[in-house]
Amino acid sequence: DQIALNHKTIVCPMIDVIDHNHFGYEAQAGDAMRGAFDWEMYYKRIPIPPELQRADPSDPFESPVMAGGLFAVNRKWFWELGGYDPGLEIWGGEQYEISFKVWMCGGGMFDVPCSRVGHIYRKYVPYKVPSGTSLARNLKRVAETWMDEFAEYIYQRRPEYRHLSTGDISAQKELRKHLKCKDFKWFMAAVAWDVPKYYPPVEPPPAAWGEIRNVAANLCVDSKHGATGTELRLDICVKDGSERTWSHEQLFTFGWREDIRPGEPLHTRKFCFDAISHSSPVTLYDCHGMKGNQHWSYRKDKTLFHPVSSSCIDCNPAEKKIFMNRCDPLSETQQWIFEHINMTVLEKFNSKASS
């Protein structure tokens, strides 16, 4: 219907999962959401803002960016847009290229909740990419063609992209000029206006960062470069002379989302400290940016408080275990020292929590 109403519209289905082991069909998790991106160019999904919500949740809704690969488009319009950039290699980046292009060059894009397509996600990639940098090159090519001055926000987070070759993009630049496409500033203001709320181009300053040292144990939190489900542990602090091996991961950022992530402020990983109850281990889990189990508060008594469970991070120095426990500000096993603290930001967090 959307394409019949306006032939310059692209429509995308909800993408469900077909299990690669037994071909079981699973509906897409969670509510319908808008396609978005962060400034490392990872695809994201964000809630539909009230302004775009329809009385009937099955109605199509505008989406800034598609997931990629699955969409319907008028063939004539697709080729007017130049199809896919032939300079993109193998895989990756094409979903941004077609999304930016359709919006900036006079069209629009909708997700359709009633349209569903099952997709089998590979367990592993069965082939090798010859150059090894095709995804990074593709993303830079899209950024240089379509994102104007906003490309700088990507390079700040991915400095290695600055020196990659995009190949010849003169034909793509000419296409953009020929189609009289709007600039990326317009796209961010008119289409993706809600993205900065979740993924700001200029990262707000963190409240605290660096090592997190326990007062009682004089040991540091270490996530060991783990992924989802990894339990945090105590270990000898690297700065105290522990072997500086890759196995240690002791730098963390307590950032503007009030979650704690492995990494330095501009280069955090996509996992967050997570706890499911007042007595559970503290684990890494995929960051969702929605607070809940990943919401933390660093209080004046040096405790790391978890509002959802109304408990604090505790530890057993002998066993090097980290877990949640009933808050006891007099217990030194619940007292933690961040290496660096921005008191202005931290006080803002704490005053917001107490109001």
Overview of the molecule:
With 355 residues, the protein is α+β, with helices and mostly antiparallel strands. The protein folds into 2 domains: 2-198, Spore Coat Polysaccharide Biosynthesis Protein SpsA, Chain A (Alpha-Beta Complex), CATH 3.90.550.10; 208-354, Trefoil (Acidic Fibroblast Growth Factor, subunit A), CATH 2.80.10. Helices cover 21% and strands 25% of the residues. The chain contains 9 helices and 19 strands. It has helices at 2-5, 75-80, 94-104, 134-146, 151-157, 170-178, 184-190, 195-198, 343-354; strands at 9-18, 25-26, 33-37, 43-47, 61-62, 108-120, 208-214, 220-222, 233-235, 252-254, 260-264, 267-268, 271-274, 283-286, 297-298, 304-306, 311-316, 321-325, 336-341. The strands form 6 sheets. The chain has a 5-stranded antiparallel β-sheet, with no helix packed on it. Strands 2-1-6-5 form a 4-stranded mixed β-sheet. A hairpin with a 4-residue loop joins strand 16 and strand 17. Helix 3 (94-104) packs parallel to helix 4 (134-146). The longest helix has 13 residues, at 134-146. The model has no long low-confidence stretch (mean pLDDT 90). Pathway: Protein modification; protein glycosylation. It is an enzyme of class 2 (transferase). It comes from Chauna torquata. This is polypeptide N-acetylgalactosaminyltransferase. Its cofactor is Mn(2+).
